[in-house]
Design goal:
The protein is mainly beta. It is built from 5 helices and 27 strands. The protein folds into 2 domains: 3-126, Sandwich (Immunoglobulin-like), CATH 2.60.40; 131-406, no CATH class. Helix content is 9%, strand content 35%. The N and C termini lie far apart (50 Å).
């Protein structure tokens, strides 16, 4: 009943603007953003049509999609602002002269003006990994029925996404600097065009952990999972019902009470945790008394060394670097090629900066709130699962597509 007068007022307002020489489009001027794909050197040069590119307004989260035309260009019409552009594509052998497989590229904090812009997006060939990060629970929960918030129950789940047995023995885990996505990032800088350029290594901070075993001790069957407790491998629900029970026989735990002796985060593991499931602490960097995994936005990697043991690698001082501006904190300079899987977690803020190269994760998954039981889960590839007969997870090298936020922890009982 009240709609018509409102419409009349809106029309009158538009008429007034028109009389002043304005149109609704003037309030939101747009300009072309033209994206071309630049694939890795040696992978051919033919343009490919039909490849999707995503542009995200970093100020308000608005997302826009465009496909490359016959000339290999994806054309957007966008209002001025700060943008992130990314693409993950699957090329078949017949699509072009590029080798088949997954290619990823991203560029963020692009200052796009009304003058328009042309941008070349570097696309890197991505190797798929047999082992993936399935879940990251880092955000904590409420202490209900007590007051306060709890974050001493962080864990992750590792998944065998291949059709063959996978041995966890000697698989390594680390988090990248800075601890938070909004922190001061010394290892990714912008060139003259504003494109984010990464160091030739990944900065693993505070510690490197390694799964125990002599090579064939800890087998994951196809589709199977392994739980790794970053903090206490105890039944946290005994005191905090919204938390999780991490005292399970098959669980692994980051526990070294000599180097990380803060019992709030690293209590003695529960009675069900086997001592041969304690992770090996390869190296500790810095003076913290508890292992730090960001409660809001970690970047976590799984990796294996090549041609050298992890112990020998970190024993070489040339592979260790001091964090700029710090007297104590150091990082391990990890070759990108050694990373099997990585997940970039962002906060809802607009000043996040990627720590993972597009070769590892072209996107990110956002943790919307902390201390609300929220967890970050990788999606299931339903079609591949039906064919394989075991759980196959999505793996497009893009956490924006592969992950989602689940309301409560998958291990919550």
């Amino acid at each position: 009943m009240k709609t018509l007068p409102l419409i009349s007022l809106a029309c009158a307002a538009l008429c007034c603007l028109s009389c002043l020489g304005f149109s609704p489009k003037d309030a939101y001027p747009v300009a072309p953003l033209v994206i071309t794909m630049q694939f890795d050197e040696g992978y051919g040069s033919d343009p490919v049509a039909g490849l999707e590119v995503l542009a995200e307004n970093m100020s308000n989260g608005a997302q826009y999609r465009a496909e490359t035309n016959a000339g290999g260009e994806a054309v957007f019409q966008l209002v001025p602002g700060l943008y992130r552009v990314s693409s993950t594509v699957h090329l078949s052998a017949s699509a072009s002269d590029h080798p088949k497989g997954i290619y990823s590229g991203s560029s963020d904090k692009i200052r796009f003006t009304q003058a328009g812009m042309r941008l070349s997006l570097t696309m890197m060939h991505v190797e798929t990994s047999p082992v993936l990060i399935k879940e990251i629970y880092c955000g904590g929960c409420k202490k209900l029925p007590q007051e306060g918030e709890y974050q001493s129950d962080k864990y992750m789940i590792v998944h065998n996404n291949s059709e063959e047995d996978y041995y966890l023995d000697s698989l390594c885990v680390g988090v990248l600097a800075p601890y938070n996505a909004t922190g001061n990032n010394h290892w990714a800088v912008r060139d003259g065009s504003g494109t984010l350029v990464f160091k030739d290594y990944a900065p693993v901070i505070q510690a490197v952990w390694q799964f125990p075993g002599g090579g064939r001790d800890f087998c994951l069957k196809p589709g199977a999972d392994a739980v790794l407790c970053f903090c206490g491998a105890i039944d946290h629900t005994a005191n905090f019902p919204l938390s999780v029970n991490l005292d399970k026989e098959d669980y692994f735990v980051c526990y070294n009470n000599k180097e990380f002796y803060n019992t709030q985060y690293h209590p003695v593991p529960g009675s069900h945790i086997r001592s041969d499931h304690y992770m090996n602490l390869v190296i500790k960097l810095g003076k913290a008394n508890a292992y730090t995994v960001s409660v809001s936005s970690p970047a976590i990697v799984l990796f294996r060394t090549k041609g050298v043991s992890i112990g020998d690698f970190v024993a070489d001082d040339s592979h260790i670097s001091l964090v700029p501006g710090s007297a104590d904190d150091r990082i391990v300079c990890l070759p990108w090629a050694w990373i099997l899987d990585g997940v970039e977690v962002f906060t809802p803020a607009s000043n996040n900066v990627k720590r993972l190269s597009p070769a590892v994760d072209v996107g990110y998954v956002t943790l919307s709130e902390t201390f609300m039981q929220h967890t970050l889960m990788r999606r299931v590839n339903q079609e591949a699962t039906a064919v394989a007969g075991y759980e196959v997870l999505a793996d497009s090298n893009n956490s924006s597509a592969d992950f989602y936020q689940r309301d409560i922890q998958s291990l919550h009982e």
